[in-house]
Design brief:
Chain lengths: ~325, ~550
């Protein structure tokens, strides 16, 4: 078997094992939450009777390991269960499948993440490479200071500043990004502009600095000096000789930031009222809608594992030593 | 003046001029006659031309206009929201429910109880209530509403397994039956003169039999789409039976939890109205010229219930010492930033019918507090649990109370509780003797008392059940409930309030106002309801674009 394929399969296996462990952690963490769905949804109105009725109906009186096996068994077959909300004892059951709840929100989140990535990744690569090229120049220093400034502020602060500038003082973009399934693409892009800018400002520094550092790190190696001695220009040295060997660390940091865009942007969602999956999960935690929390957590775990796997694979296949084994 | 004048003149001779003017004004408001005809009819009743013209202008300004897309940002809403009114619990579901649904009765914007889907209601003994239904009202699915639907809607909340939050409210109903197509008869376990108020509760929405949860109602707007925790889109119901209501063509209710995002959206014109203005920034927000801020003081209040089942709160003098040790105006100024009123240690607000205004207002009095504290014989710290889950600023309010109690020589230890599970683990729980709490208030005295003060409610958060005053209180509440004579009820309720004020376990220092903001494009009636936030949660059918 080709060593690359072998490594990839190995990584995939490890990913599945990680996922299994994560599922146990998710389940036990949720078991430890105080309060339950009945109490949470009825709030001040919860009486023992109604809470007991809810628990019976939802099967929460079964032992934990049985509920875990049921959940994992379903999840393997792509069934994340049914949300607790929307149920009622008399009349029809209006509760929704977890998949139906998560799917539109996840689609929104992925859309925002893609738009941000499409802007942020090329920009940070460009800035990273050029600042490595013109190391210690005024350009390099300006880029570094600016991106470090934007990453140092909390996201909501960057968001409010953008709203103040681009929605209030100069009303170019809307401050509400409340898209839904029927929003046409151009309207959707227009409405998501401010959240995407905010996220771009937050993640560019990390990726750009990593690109710059990876390249500069390589510039000290003997083979680069060799290339220089053979008369290659600075641009040639960086693009032809340094960059191919720098892809692994760059891919890792890009994967890390993409994962963050999917799982960690709840603050930006709240500020711009963007109906993403983070808000859904926070809501579900507050109301103890356990199937939804578990579903979201599992999807987040899969996102992390998948993106890291891809970064690993990129690292492997761009590494000449692994590509051409002796 | 042309030939029409003769006709007008003839009518005027047959009825009083004022009555005629009123009728013409109504017709003009509803657009049945034009401005010229209206001015002409004023002239015919002897009004001079300049005043007739200015009167026409005034009427036009206060006349609701149809049309427009109304977008409202609400500070509530979560993904667990449903269209089933039985689990309705936050303000988003309340406003949404009142927008597409109706109830048997309604609390008007002046606080009176008026019939809604019931045309009238009557009772001889306050125990058997007959509701005559409005005829020819259609559900959004085209079905005509009958007594069968009303009975089904009520049974939805009353079944043994019902998880409805209105279950407790309706345990008093012994039987409910339809009498023909247009009449329902309720038999109550015990007489209740306020029963018609109970049926206006937001949970008990009238839906077509067999379909309690899909959002089909009889209201002024038809639900187009509903995404829990995000938004609700509605369209005007062309067959709405209620006159002078539901003026917007389209409605979009948005859940915008973050107050800054909500205020930004209103400032940038993305929404037309919002609830729950952030009090910390209200003075800055006020400077915006395109919006106006309004507030309504209703029945909502903050309390600090002391449980009589837990020492030392079983001690009358200790309770009294604490009641005298609070700087109420300071709480209104610092916690509510002036948007509220001071309370008098009982839950009945000035917006209620039988508010006891004879009780002397309790103020901070270090001497009286110290006197009672000494008499109580208590020493040491008094624990007070608080979390901002109770109300925004609950922990700060507790700190202020601790500071003022210290002036009277008492030591209150403020315990900051987790927000999560506050209502299950802290409030109404013998594990904690004293905590912070919030009540939305109730439109009637009996309702408020039976929600939190009588000995048979699970929410009796003060456990005030066995003292002599409590026993007397429970007797009086029952007596007042069965009493149809207004004066006698007033006397009974005055006494009930005095008993809570004196012996009860609750400290009720402040009534909070609902503070909202609208774009100047939105016009409202001069009266705004205070039974719930957002004009009694019925702003969508009551407001219009000016």
């Amino acid at each position: 078997m080709h060593p690359v394929l072998k490594t990839v399969l190995g990584r995939l296996g490890l990913g599945l094992a990680t996922l299994f462990i994560v599922s146990i952690i998710i389940f036990s963490a949720i078991e430890m939450l105080p309060g339950d769905f009945g109490q949470a949804i009825l709030g001040q109105a919860a009486t023992e009777e109604t809470v007991a009725a809810f628990r019976r109906e939802l099967g929460l009186d079964e032992p934990p390991y049985i509920r875990y096996l049921q959940w994992v068994g379903g999840a393997i077959q792509g069934d994340l269960g049914t949300s607790f909300s929307g149920r009622n004892a008399s009349g029809t059951d209006r509760s929704r499948e977890v998949i139906d709840l998560i799917a539109p929100r996840l689609w929104n989140t992925l859309f925002l993440a893609s738009v941000t990535a499409i802007i942020a990744v090329p920009v940070s690569l460009f800035l990273g490479i050029t600042s490595a090229l013109y190391r210690n120049s005024v350009y390099d220093r300006t880029i570094n200071t600016t991106t470090l400034t934007t990453i140092s502020f909390p996201e909501f602060f960057v968001a409010y500043i953008l709203i103040l500038l681009l929605a209030s003082l100069y009303p170019i973009f809307p401050s509400l990004a409340n898209v839904d399934a029927s929003t046409p693409l151009n309207e959707r892009l227009y409405r998501s502009a401010l959240p995407a800018f905010t996220l771009t400002l937050v993640i560019v520094a990390h990726m750009m600095r990593m690109t710059r550092a990876a390249i500069i790190n390589l510039l000290a190696s003997p083979y680069i000096q060799m290339a220089r001695l053979s008369g290659a220009s600075q641009t040639e040295v960086i693009l032809k000789h340094a960059l191919p060997n720098a892809w692994a660390p760059i891919a890792t940091v890009i994967a890390f930031n993409l994962a963050y865009l999917v799982v960690g942007v709840v603050v930006v969602e709240v500020v711009f009222v963007y109906p993403g999956v983070g808000q859904l999960m926070v809501d579900a935690v507050t109301s103890r809608d356990i199937p939804v929390v578990q579903g979201c957590a599992l999807i987040f775990a899969v996102t992390y594992i998948l993106l890291n796997l891809i970064a690993d694979i990129i690292g492997i296949i761009t590494n000449p030593r692994l590509l051409h084994p002796k | 003046m042309g030939g029409n004048n003769d006709n007008t003149q003839g009518v005027v001779n047959n009825m009083s001029k004022l009555e005629y003017r009123a009728i013409q004004e109504l017709k003009y408001k509803r657009g049945q006659i034009d401005r010229r005809t209206f001015v002409r009819s004023l002239l015919a009743t002897g009004v001079a031309l300049p005043s007739a013209l200015s009167l026409a202008g005034q009427v036009a300004a206060s006349t609701p206009k149809s049309g427009g897309r109304f977008r409202m940002g609400l500070g509530h809403g979560s993904t667990t929201d449903t269209l089933d009114s039985a689990t309705s619990e936050n303000h988003f579901t309340l406003v949404n429910g009142y927008t597409f649904g109706n109830h048997l009765t309604e609390v008007s914007n002046t606080g009176e109880l008026i019939p809604e889907l019931a045309e009238s209601f009557e009772s001889d003994d306050a125990q058997k209530w007959v509701f005559n239904l409005r005829q020819g009202v259609e559900f959004h699915n085209g079905k005509t509403m009958t007594s069968e639907d009303v009975v089904a809607s009520y049974n939805h909340h009353m079944g043994e397994d019902s998880t409805s939050a209105a279950k407790g409210l309706l345990t008093q109903v012994k039987s409910l039956k339809a009498d023909g197509k247009n009449k329902v008869i309720f038999e109550l376990e015990n007489p209740n003169a306020d029963f018609p108020f109970i049926v206006s509760d937001y949970h008990i929405s009238i839906r077509p039999a067999g379909d309690m949860a899909s959002g089909v109602g009889t209201g002024g707007y038809i639900l187009q789409s509903f995404e829990p925790g995000v938004k609700s889109v509605l369209k005007k119901n062309p067959n709405y039976w209620k006159e002078g209501a539901a003026h917007f063509d389209e409605v979009e209710l948005l859940s915008i939890i973050d107050p800054t995002a909500r205020q930004n959206a209103l400032t940038s014109g993305d929404i037309d109205a919002m609830d729950r203005v952030d009090l910390k920034t209200v003075n800055l927000f006020k400077r915006n010229k395109d919006i106006y801020i309004w507030d309504a003081t209703g029945t909502a209040h903050y309390t600090f219930p002391m449980r009589l089942s837990v020492a030392p709160f079983d001690n009358y003098d200790l309770r009294m010492a604490l009641k005298w040790s609070i700087k109420r105006q300071e709480l209104v100024d610092k916690i509510l930033l002036g948007y509220g009123a001071i309370g008098n240690d009982h839950p009945i607000s000035t917006a209620n019918r039988y508010h006891n205004s004879d009780l002397p207002q309790r103020e901070f009095d270090a001497d009286k507090a110290a006197y009672h504290y000494k008499k109580s014989g208590h020493s040491g710290k008094i624990p007070l649990s608080a979390a901002d889950a109770a109300f925004a600023g609950a922990v700060d309010a507790a700190q202020l109370m601790a500071a003022s109690a210290a002036e009277a020589g008492m030591e209150i230890e403020v315990i900051r509780e987790p927000k999560d599970g506050y209502w299950s683990n802290v409030w109404n729980n013998d594990a904690k003797g004293w905590c912070a709490c919030y009540w939305g208030g109730r439109p009637t005295e009996d309702w408020m008392f039976s929600a939190a003060y009588t000995d048979d409610t699970e929410w009796n958060d003060t456990a005030w059940k066995t003292t002599d005053s409590a026993v007397k209180f429970n007797k009086l509440v029952k007596e007042a409930r069965a009493e149809l004579n207004d004066n006698k009820r007033r006397e009974l309720y005055y006494e009930c309030q005095r008993l809570i004020y004196d012996d009860g376990g609750t400290i009720c220092p402040i009534f909070n106002s609902y503070v909202s903001a609208n774009s100047k494009a939105i016009a409202t009636d001069e009266n705004i309801a205070a039974n719930w936030d957002s004009d009694g949660a019925k702003c969508v059918e009551r407001w219009w674009f000016a």
